[in-house]
Amino acid sequence: MDSGGEGVDIRSASKSYGAVRALDDVTLRIEPREFVSLLGPSGSGKTTLLGLLGGFIQPSSGSIHFGGRDVTQVPPHKRDIGVVFQNYALFPHMSVGENVAFPLRARRLPRASWPEKVRAALTMVDLSGYEERGIAQLSGGQRQRVALARAMIFEPRLILMDEPLSALDKQLRESMQIELRGLHRRIGATIIYVTHDQREALTMSDRVAVLKGGRLVQVDRPAQLHDHPADSFVASFIGEASLLPVRRLDCSSVALGPTVLRSARAIPDSDALILAVHSEKLLIDDGDGDGVRNRLTGQVTDVVYQGESLRIFLTLPDGTALSLRQPSHHEACRRIPSVGGNLTVTLHPEDIIVVPEARI
Ligand SMILES: Nc1ncnc2c1ncn2[C@@H]1O[C@H](COP(=O)(O)OP(=O)(O)O)[C@@H](O)[C@H]1O
Ligand SMILES: [Mg+2]
Predict the structure, then answer these.
(1) Domain segments of the chain: what residues?
(2) Residues 289-301: pLDDT tens digits?
(3) How far apart are CA 71 and CA 161, in angstroms?
(4) Residue 313: per-residue pLDDT
């Protein structure tokens, strides 16, 4: 199974429901075989955008193109896409095999060809030999894999998924994320995946499209999104960051209260600036005193043990609160004082991320 993948073009797509602008002028190009996540909080327009791609929702304006062909007016069943939703939408009275074969029936493919295709699709999702099982006999994870097999059986070049793992518990969700990555590599289809979980989006995607209030805020590769957020909304949404208002001093430094911080990156020219401090980038000072790193000293207000890491909460003398995360086996953790004590942390100029404050 290698479908080649469909290229997708969304051109100035908008969708209004009365006064509600669910999608506002979204333009996005997705390459063949790309895995792109649509990420955003509840109500940001993710499902609406996926609906436009699937043909379940008509745009108020703009157009959708597959492989250069305008499909805006093409009904869902003629778009040749696989679709997987959160609630599986399996037929409970049918066996696993009948569920998986359903798209073949709907497409009127010769019945003789079904068993081999069903077997291949079930093998793909690690459910070989499950043809005769009833849906009620399956676990949540197995059901979701049946839904995946059903979406893939006609080898679609484009698969749409709307929060397909959100009903599963954390462990299963994480293992399914890795399985989906592998599956994507094997089948070579284009996948567009809706999630509100930033870790899930970072784990699986070639690129992540961040939505807010129906608009695309930033579309980038995961590491770029994390380390070069476009504004404070993206910075707050991706990774674990303390967001602190700062004042611009010049093109390479800002003031955090009374403290001057030097940045290796250009400081944007704006009145409302936010410093995003990723908790893993604040390091406990080892006292070797290089002149390069920025230093901050604060009072420890809490130390939380979380297994593989410790999260330490600090308050700076001007009242600013921030947190850092250290691997709990790390030597430097021995230098953490008890609550109430002072701790000096360092932040490399490369890691001074200053972004414009997002408009509401
Ligand atoms: N059928 C509808 N009628 C009216 N408003 C809708 C409808 N579908 C979605 N909306 C509104 O459009 C916005 C985007 O919704 P949706 O795309 O479902 O967001 P998400 O999937 O990101 O949670 C929300 O404000 C939602 O209330
Ligand atoms: Mg949704």
Answers:
(1) 8-227, 242-356
(2) 677 889 999 999 9
(3) 19
(4) 97
pLDDT, one tens digit per residue, over 278-328 is 999 999 998 776 778 899 999 999 999 999 999 999 999 989 999 999 999
Residue type, 333: C
Tens-place pLDDT, residues 82-126: 998 876 689 999 999 999 999 898 888 899 999 999 999 999 888
CA distance 241 to 232: 10
* Residue 47 Cβ < 6 Å to ligand 1: yes
Task: Tell me the residue type at 251.
Answer: C
Q: Is residue 345 within 8 Å of 284, Cβ to Cβ? A: yes
Polymer length of the chain: 360
Mutate to test the pocket of ligand 1, among 14, 48, 210 (most ligand atoms within 8 A of CB): 48
Crossing angle for the helix pair 96-106 and 114-124, to the nearest 10 degrees: 120
Tokens of 169: 């518990």
- What is the CATH architecture assignment of 242-356? Beta Barrel (2.40)
Q: Is 50 in the pocket of ligand 1 (CB under 6 A)?
A: no
15, 16, 20, 26: residue to mutate for ligand 1 pocket, most atoms within 8 A of CB: 20
Query: Model's pTM, two decimal places?
Result: 0.92
Using the mean position of ligand 1's atoms as its centre, give its distance from the Cα of residue 22 in Å: 6
Q: What is the mean pLDDT of residues 252-259?
A: 94
Token pair for 87: 């609630």
CATH topology of domain 8-227: Rossmann fold (3.40.50)
